[in-house]
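quick q for whoever's on today - can somebody do inverse folding on this one?? i tried earlier but teh output was garbage lol. tokens:
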């Protein structure tokens, strides 16, 4: 019997624009429609960023709310996850939409070098976001861009700022951060099980590593992430036509690994939502 795999679709992100790929959804109506297509293709969790009118990264709670309302209407029981990521966003506003009580929100537990800048998450800021998520009953997805962030997550649990069992995501393939190597992922999984014995995990491959990392996840028993945030191409030859096309590409290969896309109900059970 095949086992369920949560498919996260990261629909927009902070970086790609319509100039990079016209399929990138950047206004709420496009994001709702793109999420619905991904949902029908097999995604059970949507990871949401919002954009300003000029397509730069935004933090407007009204836009988050509009997308949340639309997704709830068109994608019953789909897990909604807001991004608190910091690229191009004022640090003081990164948690400004958590009062909307999405099912989940991303939480990076440390700072890391990115290709051209530093993704800053000072300890007191991480603690504050974690506490806000507790206050609003929002489950964090712990974003692991570097090994130290895994131990920082364990610290949050020990200090009562993160409920157990946690859900972590290993982000692989960003220059200056975790490389997209299977041996590294296997080490991270092993370390995770030793440091935090009970929990769930997924991994995201960035750019050309997206599909390869997803296949490792399928084989190793984890969950998967895809979407235009991380990768704007379907393959080396052409751009992806939609988020749904990337989801379908992943779902189509699942039988090879005796896996199947988790329904929203199954995904909620796996994550304890």
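ok took a stab at it. sequence:
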């Amino acid at each position: 019997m095949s086992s369920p795999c949560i498919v996260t679709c990261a629909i927009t992100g902070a970086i790609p624009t319509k100039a990079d790929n016209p399929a990138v959804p950047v206004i709420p109506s496009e994001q709702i429609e793109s999420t619905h297509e991904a949902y029908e293709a097999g995604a059970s969790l949507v990871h949401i960023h919002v954009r300003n009118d000029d397509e730069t990264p935004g933090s407007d709670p009204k836009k988050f709310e509009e997308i949340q309302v639309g997704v709830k209407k068109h994608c019953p029981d789909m897990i909604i996850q807001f991004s608190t990521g910091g690229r191009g966003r004022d640090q003081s506003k990164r948690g400004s939409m958590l009062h909307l009580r999405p099912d989940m929100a991303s939480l990076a537990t440390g700072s890391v070098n990115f290709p051209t800048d530093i993704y800053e998450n000072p300890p007191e800021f991480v603690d504050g976001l974690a506490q806000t998520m507790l206050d609003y009953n929002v489950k964090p997805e712990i974003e692991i861009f570097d090994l130290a962030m895994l131990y920082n997550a364990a610290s949050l649990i020990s200090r009562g700022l993160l409920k157990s069992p946690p859900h972590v995501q290993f982000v692989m393939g960003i220059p200056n951060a975790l490389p997209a190597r299977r041996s590294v992922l296997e080490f991270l999984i092993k370390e995770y099980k030793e440091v935090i014995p009970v929990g769930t995990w997924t991994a995201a491959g960035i750019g050309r590593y997206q599909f390869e990392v997803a296949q490792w996840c399928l084989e190793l028993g984890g969950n998967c992430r895809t979407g235009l945030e991380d990768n704007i191409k379907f393959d080396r030859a052409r751009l992806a036509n939609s988020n749904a096309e990337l989801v379908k590409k992943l779902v189509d290969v699942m039988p090879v690994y005796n896996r199947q896309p988790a329904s929203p109900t199954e995904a909620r059970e796996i994550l304890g939502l």
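fwiw The longest helix spans residues 28-41. also The radius of gyration is 17 Å. so keep that in mind when u check it
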